[in-house]
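Two proteins follow. First one:
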Amino acid sequence: MQIVMLSHTYPPLLGGIERHVRNLSRALVQRGHQVAVVTLASGDLPAYEEDEGVRVYRIRGTIHRLERMLFQQPGRSYAPPVADPELTRAIGQVLQRERPTIVHAHNWLVHSYLPLARRSPARLVVTLHDYGLICARWNLMERGQPCPGPSPLRCLACGAREYGALKGPPTVALNWLGAKAERRMVDAFIAVSGAVARINRLDAEQARVEIIPNFIADEVEPGGAGEAPIPAGALLFVGALARSKGLPTLLAAYDDLRRSSIDPLPPLALIGYATGDMPLDQASLPPGVSVLTDQPNDVVLRAWQACSLGVVPSVWPEPCPTVAMEAMAMGKPLVASDVGGLPDLVAHGETGFLVPPGDPLALRNALAMLVSNPELCATMGAAARQRVAAFRASAVVGKIETLYKQLTYATRTTA
């Protein structure tokens, strides 16, 4: 089967969606499929390369020539919620070369494909990793707090705060229109958790919806040699360095923990990429906290090996974070927010603890319980390693492959 993936970004750029697209693409290649990834150009990365059998095309569009005015974070650009003509043309050129039976999109880049979809024989699958169908910010957050739900006035005001008064309202309106087209033209949605399907209101839609979680490789080990980038036994956070990830809550909880009687207190390491969302210079951090940015996945995995436990303190409804699975695969317990898809991953009291999002005291108490009880930490870590089997490639990729085959069969029978 010929498959083309569409994703804003792709490794070596960091992020959970990036790793998911790479892991899925590589797993499908191993199963005998032909897979190409279309992603946005970034920096000096090559326009074309092969990644363990996956053909990677990096394309440019109007978004790159106007990136200061449009959607950009340091080191990465994002497609708009409407077709970019130049991106559409570049995607079309890749499709002519690859001739896919399945186009599998993972974010707003799908909008630049939709003008091609009507005349393409390929079936369109969209994996929802966030809440982009109803939220132009993707994370369903408003003023640093979970949004109670979309409404025209609330969304327009929020968009203006996020993207600016000139860019925000058009972005919200275009996302609303683009989502309507997406719901109408997609052959099947994959939601990475029940929370994603429910919050995006897919349960009331006519389109086919499958709930299939993110996954990790069957064997998760850091490649090559190298020392751990963090001290042994450290507490570890991995993810975007942003308020929505709960960093203010985590830093407050750790600072409180530092003032307690736990001695010695393990250091706290933060690994991720800067978003410009909050200052993380050393002077603004509590003692014992360090920050590493833009680290490759092998380095992150070595950090998971070295740490004592992982922390996922998100205040937004985290859909299905790959970093949580990587921690579990390394036999580490997790302290995570009881929100979004995280309860699907963490079994409270067995593989870690779930705490209310945005509650520094609850987070501090859960961390203290594990830090002061190494035996409990080890027991929960072992249970986490067993639980993550349900989220490995061998347990998940076949479900996606089955969906592809069903859609392809339907195309052939109706041709």
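Second one, unrelated to the first:
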Amino acid sequence: MMVRYLMREKGVTMRVFLTGGSGYIGQATIAELVGQGHTVEALARSVRAEEAVVAVGATAVRGGLADLEVLREAAARAEAVIHLAQASSGEEDLAAAAAMQDGVGGGTYVHTGGTWVYGDTDGVQDETAAWNPPGAVAWRKAVEDAVLARTADGGRPVIVQPGLIYGGDNRLIDAFFVQPGTEKGAISYIGDGGNRWALVHIDDLAPLYVAALSAEAGSVYVGVGGVNPTAKEVAEACARAAGLDGKTTSITLEQASAEMGPIADAFALDQQFTPAKAQRELGWQPSHTEPLSVFAQD
């Protein structure tokens, strides 16, 4: 009960253990945590990763997601855990989550999901939408169910489901747009490009993870900025940034899949989400509301 009380007190600093700290989201989240006065230990599986997390203010813990005892012990030293690292499989993610939840006990455990699990949304949706995941992320259902089940045993699981992230040094969207078409002087999109993308800027997402440390046990939050442009609009903006005079070209899903693999199905999803729940319950306010202008400048 004391841990739960401390988590709710604004301005109280905590010891936080974080995975994936050397990555795109991780470095931003460590910086946000440190900026708010928290002490951070971050998992680092290599010398390069260790240097990256130390550079943004964390203490490195050497190991990987398969090192379950390392995860358990680090989580036990912490008052809260944020799991950002991308696992190689659902089995690895579930085992890592279980080890960290065992370690942190009644402290908050924030797990990373993603909005892709909801599939096509047919209009604007929230966290109550039905799951209809493409194959690339279908494994997340069993993991998230197991994570949330810890609530019944006194755990404090919280899940953050980011939309498609942009801003800073992100290369996920870049990885899509360097597919067939770019070398021909145009940026490609799938089909007619009318499918919408639920986006979130990295500078908004990091504060959401920190805010989630005070969430009620069992809470789930989609991490989106509330602006959902079409894939074609994003392609056009990126084409302007690339000096291609806004030129775009349509490719088929089959072409995209041949280049990208199963993740192409996720980029073809038509998704719109509202951040209203996180705004209402956590006081989180996304400030980046013009993603197309950001894409046009990158």
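SUMMARY FIELD: Confidence is low (pLDDT under 50) at residues 1-8. Residues 14-162+200-224+274-280 form a domain with the Rossmann fold fold (CATH 3.40.50.720).
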